[in-house]
Amino acid sequence: xxxxxxxxxxxxxxxxxxxxxxxxxxxxEVLVRIHAASVNPVxxxxxxxxxxxxxxYRLPLILGNDAAGVVVRVGSKVRxxxxxxxxxxxxxxxxxxxxxxxxxxxxxxxxMKPKNLTMEEAASVPLVALTAWQALVDRANLKKGQKILxxxxxxxxxxxxxxxxxxIGATVATTTSTANVDLVRxxxxxxxxxxxxxxxxxxxxxxxxxxxxxxxxxxxxxxRVLKPGGKLIxxxxxxxxxxxxxxxxxxxxRQAMRLxxxxxxxxxxxHRVSYSFLFMKPSGGQLEQIASLIEAGAIRPVVDxxxxxxxxxxxxxxxxxxxxxxKVVIAVR
Length: 333
Known about the structure:
Elements (H helix, E strand, L loop, with lengths): L1 E5 L9 E4 L9 E11 L1 H8 L12 E2 L4 E8 L11 E4 L12 E5 L3 E3 L6 H5 L2 H14 L7 E4 L5 H13 L2 E6 L4 H7 L3 E4 L5 H4 L3 E6 L3 H7 L3 E9 L6 H6 L4 H10 L1 H9 L3 E4 L6 H12 L7 E6 L3 H9 L6 E5 L2
Parallel strand pairs: 9-10, 9-12, 10-11, 12-13, 13-14, 15-16
Antiparallel strand pairs: 1-2, 1-4, 3-5, 3-7, 3-16, 5-6, 6-8
Helix pairs in contact: 3-4
């Protein structure tokens, strides 16, 4: 099968299009013929070697972290899916590889594709929607009537998180550029801070939750908008000791993560708020719930551009500009 892969870690390097064997199917996995895959910032970070201590992949490695397609074979212990099912999913972190014609994925990590979405639209959903769900529902325990600030509202995670927070019944503020103000309002944002005109930390106050996907400066400024007891959740780091424990890191790596997050944890304590780092986990069960919300019209995917499979490198380069509105997708078939 054809696949885009890396042979070594190198910042900004092009992926290599090569012929590789079809993945071997384990007894609890489904073999999916990929119709579309989406491109995420994490793909570039893996290629650049930013995660090589936390995610020790064997090279060469096929990149790609979520997809939609059709089940063509099932393992002997698979009970939920059959050949011909249209599915979408996010493989486990040690089984990635959706920039390819096929992938073997654990049945627990996929769900039936939302019926009202195309393959390209469905492929745009898993990673960002699971991130939003696990941040807002699992970690923040967001409730009706609470106030949440979602940074980068026009980005992949932000666009879904705004809609999910509105569905829950929260008041939603977001930051975005002038060009995307109308987009985030159409997704349901109640308060929009144009970062080219205003500093969000001077405009917002008394918030229950902040979801951060940006850098260190934004993370620290976010403390000022939270009320005592509020929650600062970051998907862009730095990793904290709890994440180190959950990921089964060795002693040295645990200490490194403790040091990396020491400053923001100390400042959070001073502001009487909690800080946590979220690294999204695959979940077919949560994708089922997300599919129900999509089919009910509560959430819609936002797709900026669809690239043909052979232009995967161009798609990755476009994501790296940081200017995509919503998601960038690769049409594999």
